[in-house]
Amino acid sequence: MAKTNQTEKVNYLEEHEGEGFENLTAADYAVPFLRILQLLSPQVNKNSPDYITGAEPGMFFNTVTEKLYGNEVNLIPLTFQKVWLEWLPDRGGLTGKHEPYSIKINKSDFSNWKTPGGNTISECLLFYCLVIGHLEDGPLVFSLFSSGIKHGKNWNTQIMLTHLPNGKKAPYFSSVWKLKTVLNKNQMGEWYQIGEKKTAIVRKRFVTEKEFNNFVLPGKNVLSAIKELDYTQLEDKVDTEQDVPY
Fold this sequence. Notes:
By secondary structure, the chain is an alpha+beta fold. It has helices at 11-14, 149-160, 209-225, 235-240, and strands spanning 33-36, 60-62, 68-70, 72-87, 94-98, 106-109, 112-114, 120-131, 140-144, 175-180, 182-186, 189-193, 201-206. It has four helices and 13 strands.
């Protein structure tokens, strides 16, 4: 949701609200991803053409606007999706997307799921969110693989247990949640994630009526028009993280 100059006089446009988008499809939108910058991310490398001034490992980053959000973000989750992504061996690239449990796999351990043909399957949790303080940026997709799966499931559990003051179950998009990045280490190296042993996600408050009417509802409408993501955008995320799902 791009910013506009609120002092501009544009009354003449109001009767044409939403016109002109009739021929746009999901393929014509660049849905931004919300990334956690890693030690190997090109955005933090001053010698890379993709370097962004001020970028540091552990920061949240918008892949479309290249905006940095810092090491903490307050998010409104709008909806959720889980997919299985199929990768060619030796990081040969993304070759397919599947509904969970829709294909045959061989599981040897959590991080080693293989198809009968030898490709790797990684579970991916996708949270469609708004960023507080940057609501005009519109919905972003926050993806979690590998070590992030347990934190994503923890977040969903917290969301599921949220109730309104009258005791009724709160909708998925009812609350603002603070996410913080934490440095993780193992024999493979170091990487940033939204928690380590404990999940660094805390519920802050319910969304305000203004946030709900001006951003949550329009954001949900945007998502309803987007039936398919460009999952190839996740390839560089996998390649720049130390705990890759291989």
